[in-house]
Design a protein that fits this description.
The complex is a heterodimer. Chain A is α+β, with helices and mostly antiparallel strands. Chain A has one domain. In chain A, about 40% of the residues lie in helices and about 15% in strands. Chain A contains seven helices and five strands, in the order H-E-H-H-E-H-H-H-E-E-H-E. Chain A has a five-stranded mixed sheet with strand order 2-4-3-1-5. Chain A is globular, with a radius of gyration of 16 Å. The two termini of chain A are about 15 Å apart. Chain B is of the alpha+beta class. Chain B has two domains: about 120 residues, no CATH class; about 160 residues, no CATH class. In chain B, a hairpin with a 2-residue loop joins strand 3 and strand 4. In chain B, helix 2 packs antiparallel against helix 3 and helix 3 packs antiparallel against helix 4. The longest helix of chain B is centred in the middle third of the chain and has 55 residues. The chains are: A alpha+beta, B alpha+beta.
């Protein structure tokens, strides 16, 4: 369901976006308990044999278990981030491996020193060239979390994702 | 009229009081009249005070704020000072009651002044707030271009008749989208519009110059609409100026430029890419859609274009 996030939540989203001063170029999908998780699982190629009621925590844990979602912490080192993204690429059957030695990434990473969002932007730009998009899943929960959740989906499936959550 | 009824009611209560008084003290003399009047006023004011307290504490529906609190306090002081004034007509503790009357009179005066000040402040704050809101509203309208810089942008407040008319042109009420426009929430209407592919929400990733993502999203939308056009990366990139190439390389927004070029490509097939902005207070949705030439002309004729 598109726009499952209610209007009041949008005030919250506006606040979140305003507070975040880093510029991220990857897509962001805001999700809450009310999302059509079956559609999401189908989009991420997860076999669907789950019951009808599921909260956002449960959804995230299933995605993590199936390795189609990675959890990145703000303090994670670049090497660890790249390892996690590689795992994600592998589970999404994308036949490519990121490497700090890789020309494209190395060239960009030399320019600025380990800003998480910048690094993720560079990785995202690299993945885009392959026809895929690194999307941040942003769970809307009362207790704020500093973890970032990412999935990789083909670019032509982005509009389908927009039917599940609110794309920011 | 209401005041006349009130006066009649007060007089009626007074006569009832006099009758009851006469019933118990039938040796009534005219010189006692002032005493009766005094006694009546004390009773009436105490009764008023009780009613006032009950109303303030139990029937205010949580609307008590600083202004009503100060008004209540000043009323209490006024009532108490009047009670002490009337009590001072008796010989018993006359001096004490006079002092109390003066104290409560002063308190009433001070609380009334304080209430007037708060009331004026509140009014001026409200006036400023309205003014600010009007300013932010117009500023937001201007900012919308500045912030996102959207090509072919039509902007409407989503709780207005304008919005209804705009959507009427875009979807021609297909699938009964507008049947419940005034009854249902706008989110529901938007959801229907997106589900039926009239519009789609702009994604953040579209802003930042990456043609892979931009063309990818536009192409998947064209596919949904069964429009047999595929826009390749090179189709857009060939129009790029030096500045645009630089912007693309360093994550800067090229949204306006990209929309413009896509619109130019689509216009060869009598199609147009339009951006529709819906806003109300802090909420705003920027959506894109592809419309035919005639719909675009209708939109252009009826609505202001923010380019």
């Amino acid at each position: 369901m598109l726009l499952t996030v209610d209007v009041q939540r949008f005030y919250f989203l506006d606040e979140v976006i305003m507070k975040r001063k880093e510029l991220h170029i990857y897509s962001c999908c805001y999700i809450n308990d009310g999302i059509d998780f079956k559609k999401l699982f189908k989009l991420l190629n997860i076999s669907d044999n789950f019951n009808n009621e599921m909260d956002i925590k449960k959804i995230l844990s299933i995605l993590l278990k199936n390795k189609v979602l990675v959890e990145i912490k703000m303090k994670d080192r670049l090497e660890l981030i790249i390892d996690k993204i590689n795992l994600l690429l592998k589970s999404s059957s994308i036949d490519i491996e990121l490497d700090i030695e890789n020309n494209f990434i190395a060239k960009h990473l030399q320019e600025k020193n380990s800003m998480l969002i910048y690094n993720l932007n560079v990785i995202c730009k690299y993945i885009r060239n392959l026809g895929y998009e690194l999307v941040q899943l942003f769970p809307i929960v009362k207790k704020k979390t500093s973890k970032l959740y990412f999935v990789i989906i083909p670019i032509d499936k982005l509009l389908d994702l927009a039917e599940i959550g609110y794309m920011g | 009229m209401k005041r006349i009824y009130k006066i009649i009611f007060e007089l009626l209560i007074f006569f009832i009081f006099v009758i009851i008084y006469l019933f118990f003290y039938n040796d009534f003399l005219l010189k006692d009249f002032l005493e009766i009047l005094n006694f009546y006023f004390i009773g009436r004011i105490i009764f008023n005070l009780i009613i006032l307290s009950i109303r303030y504490n139990f029937f205010s529906n949580g609307k008590n704020n600083k202004v009503t609190k100060e008004l209540f306090e000043s009323k209490i002081y006024a009532h108490l000072s009047l009670i002490f004034l009337f009590l001072s007509f008796y010989k018993f503790l006359r001096f004490t009651f006079i002092i109390l009357f003066i104290i409560f009179g002063l308190l009433y005066f001070l609380s009334k002044v304080s209430w007037c000040l708060t009331h004026n402040k509140k009014n001026s704050l409200e006036r400023n707030f309205e003014k600010d809101e009007a300013n932010t509203y117009t500023k937001k309208k201007d900012d919308l271009n500045e912030e996102v810089k959207t090509y072919n942008l039509f902007c409407v407040n989503y709780n207005s008749m304008e919005c209804y008319q705009l959507l009427e042109i875009i979807c021609n009420n297909t699938f009964g989208i507008l049947d419940n426009f005034f009854k249902s929430s706008f989110i529901t209407i938007l959801e229907k519009l997106f589900r039926t592919n009239y519009l789609f929400l702009v994604q953040r990733s579209m802003y930042f110059g990456d043609l892979d993502i931009f063309c990818g999203i536009i192409n998947s939308y064209l596919k949904r609409l069964d429009i047999n056009i595929k826009i390749s990366k090179d189709d857009v990139a060939k129009y790029d100026s030096k500045e645009m190439i630089e912007r693309r390389s360093c994550f800067k927004s090229t949204f306006y430029n990209d929309l413009k070029i896509i619109d130019r490509i689509l216009s060869k097939n009598r199609l147009h890419l339009v951006a529709i902005g819906f806003y109300e207070n802090n909420n705003k949705f920027l959506s894109l859609g592809i419309v035919t030439d005639d719909i675009y002309k209708k939109l252009e004729k009826k609505f202001q274009l923010y380019n």
